[in-house]
């Protein structure tokens, strides 16, 4: 399936050449702070006028510009909404080696940006993923992290860190800050809870641990 | 296990500067701790600046490791400061309830360097005064 970016590029290229078309799209996306392939319906209403003003600047005559804008709207409206189509804002990162902690937090930051979080929230989300991934690697040895975008009224992201390690014996003590491990797991989990809007932990000794957190957009 | 990457430690006059411009994995931070300790012992610098302006994400482990490097250098008698903390990282650390307690922080490398040298100058002056007084009393 062609993405919205591909479709828009095709239309624009027909009127003002592919290099100009590309820079119009990039400029419009940057000025709106969105990724054209992953825009929400609301972001699209801001993005389209931005692209159109770019087209008016570069197109050879006003008539061509009008026609181009018309085709652009048609094409973008008909394109399948990737958010509705589902599956796109979801990823799983296996945590089996130390460097996976770095990979996990980088992916988390990218996904948070795609979902529409601002810079400071992206850092918070990436930091939480880093904490959770490190806990998996350090205490369970291996596991995975699922990150997915949430839609609807409470849009945001959900992160689940899942392992089948030894579990945490006295989770209440850890979360109350009463327990200080040598390696500082307490600080990581408490910090993750403070940075997120929802925090849930399910742990059974000998079975494993699942930490699920959510951050909502405001 | 292969050896972790070494971050460059730059000597500028009597100050060591570590400018972190790469994605920090746990092992790289640990290696840095060792390297800084070695360099301090070799060179006996006046100050150490850890510049973190290139660091994008700092979780509890990394921030504590960096603070530990600072505390270790301080224990070795080297004035140590951290510079260039990104505002979003600073905010995240505060919200998590973490800080870099025990190590002074500066907005950027420039002010950090100036502060170390300002203090060094004051110390030199004080030493000079002591020298003068000793000479006077003799």
Describe the protein's architecture and organization.
The complex is a heterodimer of chains A (about 220) and B (about 140). With about 220 residues, chain A is an alpha+beta fold. Chain A has two domains: about 5-85; about 90-215, Histidine kinase-like ATPase, C-terminal domain (Heat Shock Protein 90, 2-Layer Sandwich), CATH 3.30.565.10. Chain A is about 55% helix and about 15% strand. Chain A contains nine helices and five strands, in the order H-H-H-H-H-E-H-H-E-E-H-H-E-E. A five-stranded antiparallel beta sheet of chain A has the order 1-2-3-5-4, covered by helices on one side. In chain A, helix 1 packs antiparallel against helix 4 and helix 7 (about 120-140) packs antiparallel against helix 9 (about 185-195). The longest helix of chain A is centred in the middle third of the chain and has 22 residues, at about 120-140. Helices cover about 55% and strands about 15% of the residues of chain B. Chain B is built from four helices and five strands; from the N terminus they run ββαβαβαβα. A five-stranded mixed beta sheet of chain B has the order 1-2-3-4-5. The mean pLDDT of chain B is about 90. Classes of the chains: A alpha+beta (about 220), B alpha/beta (about 140). At the A-B interface, helix 6, helix 7 and helix 9 of A face helix 2 and helix 3 of B.
What's the short story on this structure?
Chain A is an alpha+beta fold and about 220 residues long. Chain A has helices spanning about 5-15, 20-30, 40-60, 60-80, 80-85, 100-115, 120-140, 170-175, 185-195, and strands at about 90-95, 145-150, 155-165, 200-205, 210-215. Chain A has a five-stranded antiparallel sheet, covered by helices on one side.
């Amino acid at each position: 399936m062609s993405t919205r970016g591909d479709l828009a590029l095709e239309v624009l290229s027909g009127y003002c050449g592919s290099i100009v078309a590309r820079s119009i799209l990039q400029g419009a996306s940057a000025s709106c702070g969105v990724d054209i392939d992953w825009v929400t319906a609301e972001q699209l209403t801001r993005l389209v006028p931005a692209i159109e003003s770019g087209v008016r600047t570069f197109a050879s005559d006003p008539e061509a510009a009008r026609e181009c804008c018309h085709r652009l709207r048609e094409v973008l409206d008909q394109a399948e909404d990737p958010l509705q189509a589902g599956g796109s804002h979801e990823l799983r990162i296996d945590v089996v080696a130390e460097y996976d902690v770095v990979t996990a937090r980088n992916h988390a930051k990218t996904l948070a940006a795609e979902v529409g979080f601002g810079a400071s929230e992206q850092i918070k989300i990436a930091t939480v993923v880093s904490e959770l991934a490190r806990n998996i690697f350090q205490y369970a040895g291996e596991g995975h992290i699922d990150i997915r975008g949430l839609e609807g009224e409470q849009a945001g992201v959900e992160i689940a860190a899942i392992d089948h390690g030894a579990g945490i014996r006295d989770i209440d003590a850890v979360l109350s800050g009463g327990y200080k491990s040598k390696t500082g797991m307490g600080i990581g989990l408490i910090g993750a809870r403070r940075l997120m809007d929802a925090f849930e932990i399910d742990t059974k000794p000998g079975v494993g641990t699942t930490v699920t957190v959510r951050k909502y957009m405001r | 296990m292969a050896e972790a990457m070494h971050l460059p430690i730059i000597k500028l006059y009597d100050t060591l500067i570590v400018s972190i411009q790469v994605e920090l994995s746990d092992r790289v931070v640990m290696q840095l701790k060792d390297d800084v300790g070695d360099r301090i012992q070799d060179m006996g610098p006046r100050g150490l600046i850890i510049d973190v302006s290139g660091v994008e994400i700092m979780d509890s482990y990394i921030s504590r490791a960096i603070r530990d490097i600072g505390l270790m250098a301080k224990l070795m008698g080297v004035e140590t400061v951290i510079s260039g903390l990104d505002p979003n990282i600073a905010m995240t650390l505060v919200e998590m309830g973490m800080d870099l307690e025990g190590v002074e922080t500066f907005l950027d490398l420039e002010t950090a360097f100036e502060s170390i040298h300002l203090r060094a100058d004051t110390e030199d002056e004080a030493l000079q005064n002591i020298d003068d007084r000793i000479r006077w009393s003799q």
